[in-house]
Automatic annotation (TrEMBL):
It holds the Pfam family Macro. Signal peptide: none annotated. It comes from the Bacteria. InterPro entries: Macro_dom, Macro_dom-like. PANTHER family: GANGLIOSIDE INDUCED DIFFERENTIATION ASSOCIATED PROTEIN 2-RELATED, MACRO DOMAIN-CONTAINING PROTEIN. Coiled coil: none annotated. It comes from Cellulosimicrobium protaetiae. Residues 1-178 form the Macro domain. SUPFAM superfamilies: Macro domain-like. NCBIfam families: PRK00431.1-6. This is O-acetyl-ADP-ribose deacetylase.
Length: 178
């Protein structure tokens, strides 16, 4: 798998799937979540509301992932994942790693071969960007696609970390070098 990092607006990337650093309600928010909802248009919110009424009445759990259409975005799908919030005592790196591996599981299950991630849980959720970068890169490198319901031959071929700042880019580049 090709793994790269760059400064980019995730809402502009022409990849199969972009990953949304969502909150558990799936109904939009600030940061990456708000930008994705705004760029995707109102049909994304409508689909998220349907998910809440049907399969996710209690919201999406931390570390899990679910897909929707991408609507007005150049991507085909949005994979929503809820990162752990350090301010709420969610400090287990395994929960953060799960955001990346479950998102890849979901993306591969859709047939996606190219996926873009933001720096999940960095920023408003209180995780240090160096820790996020290390956990993210290790999780993506360790993901094999050989999971129930996922054919590893049809897996994700390229992952891009789409980052918002030079500081985040430096952290992810360092993690990729290690």
């Amino acid at each position: 798998m090709d793994i790269s990092a760059r400064i980019a607006d995730i809402t502009t990337l022409a990849v199969d799937a972009i990953v949304n650093a969502a909150n558990s309600t799936l109904l939009g928010g600030g940061g990456v979540d708000g930008a994705i909802h705004a760029a995707a248009g109102p049909r994304l919110l409508e689909e998220c509301r349907r998910l809440r009424r049907t399969t996710l009445p209690d919201g999406l759990p931390v570390g899990d992932a679910v897909a929707t259409g991408a609507y007005d975005l150049p991507a085909r799908w949005v994979v929503h994942t809820v990162g752990p919030n350090r301010h709420r005592g969610q400090t287990d790196p395994a929960l953060l790693a799960s955001c990346f591996t479950r998102s890849l599981d979901v993306a591969a299950g859709l047939g996606a071969t190219t996926v873009a991630f933001p720096a999940i849980s960095a920023g408003a959720y209180g995780w240090d960007v160096d820790d996020v970068a290390r956990v993210a890169v290790e999780a993506v490198r360790g993901w094999s696609g050989a999971r129930p319901g996922v054919d590893p031959g049809d897996g994700v071929a390229a992952v891009t970390f789409a980052l918002a700042s030079p500081r985040a880019l430096a952290a992810f580049e360092a993690a990729l070098r290690s």
